[in-house]
Design a protein that fits this description.
Number of domains of chain A: 1
Strand content of chain B: 35-45%
Distance between the termini of chain B: 90 Å
Order of helices and strands of chain B: HEHHEEEEEH
Strand content of chain A: 35-45%
Helix content of chain A: 25-40%
Number of helices of chain A: 4
Structural class of chain B: alpha+beta
Distance between the termini of chain A: 71 Å
Mean pLDDT of chain A: 91
Oligomer: heterodimer
Number of strands of chain A: 5
Largest sheet of chain A: 5 strands, antiparallel
Largest interface: A-B, 46 and 45 residues
Shape of chain A: elongated
Low-confidence stretches of chain A: none
Chain lengths: 149, 147
């Protein structure tokens, strides 16, 4: 087999690899995103546990903290992107959550709450891409009502 | 050994390598998995132990991933995030007509990072720690029933 034949063989194999390559994306959502505008209606010292449930629905989890209690609301989105090069496959999974914790005293009156909004920041990306860029997050936050104070 | 014979042997070795690759399908995979966003260290270090209360910490860090009971009416708040690389190599070699020999190498970093904040019954920050989740949460406490 001469040098030209070897080059031709590599060319054919390369073309075959290229023609069999592909990509795939997938998305998985869990629960409805937490409504940031509804969360802004919570008033520590005024809002009760009953008000919170009427406003936001049933919590995902209720935790007893001595005489206090806390309710958790959450949602998540996971976006996956895979580049398939027949023999070599690369992929990325990006999962973010919306979380809201409401804390109540022994009389079921809201004392504190904390919220994190992340599902709208989830990205289809490849492994070498930065998915946590501040400027990117800011632009995505701007498109979700109630997230930017 | 003549030059022509050496070239033929090299070509034969290449062909043999491709034949093995075709007959023994293998796959190299690289998956990066990211969950949530890391809590910045400078935000954690800016928290004042003995002074900042639960409200200030929630405003600085957002909502935790988990909340646990601690010291009577106190609580432990846990944040966690993940950024792992998962390399894998799968090789399958047909041994007989009905049996394959398979080799799988999985190099996954399984540790998840996080930080923990402790609050006493007065809901003032009594301490914090950052590290691998397995070191931060040693004992899982089942949730209690609400009476």
């Amino acid at each position: 087999m001469n040098r030209l034949s070897v080059v031709f063989l590599f060319g054919v194999l390369g073309a075959a690899l290229a023609s069999f390559s592909g990509c795939a994306i997938a998305r998985q959502d869990n629960n409805e995103p937490v409504d940031a505008q509804l969360v802004q209606q919570l008033r520590p010292g005024v809002t009760t546990a009953r008000d919170v449930v009427e406003l936001l629905g049933a919590p995902t989890e209720v935790v007893q903290l001595g005489r206090r209690s806390a309710y958790r609301y959450d949602a998540s989105t996971e976006k996956s992107a895979v580049l398939i090069l027949l023999v070599v496959n690369v992929g990325n999974q990006d999962r973010r959550e919306d979380r809201l914790w409401t804390f109540f005293d022994e009389n079921d009156v809201l004392t504190h709450y904390g919220a994190t909004y992340g599902v709208h920041r989830t990205q289809y990306a490849l492994p070498w891409e930065d998915v946590h860029e501040a400027s990117d997050n800011d632009s995505r936050d701007a498109g979700r009502p109630g997230v930017k104070q | 050994m003549t030059r022509g014979l050496a070239n033929r042997r090299r070509s034969f070795a290449l062909l043999a390598a491709f034949a093995v690759a075709a007959v023994a399908p293998s796959c190299i995979g690289y998956i990066r998995s990211r969950v949530n966003e890391p809590v910045p260290t400078q935000v954690l270090t800016s928290l004042r132990i003995g002074q900042d209360d639960l409200g200030a910490c929630l405003a600085a860090l957002g909502a935790p991933v988990h909340v646990f009971e601690y010291d009577g009416d106190g609580m432990v708040l846990l944040w966690s995030w993940q950024d792992i690389d998962d390399w894998s190599l799968d090789v399958s070699v047909p041994v007989t007509e009905f049996a394959n020999a398979e080799f799988e190498l999985d190099l996954t970093a399984t540790e998840r990072l996080g930080c923990v904040l402790w609050f006493g019954p007065d809901l003032v920050l009594s301490g914090w720690r950052r590290g691998q989740l397995g070191d931060l949460v040693t004992v899982r406490q089942p949730p209690r029933y609400i009476e």
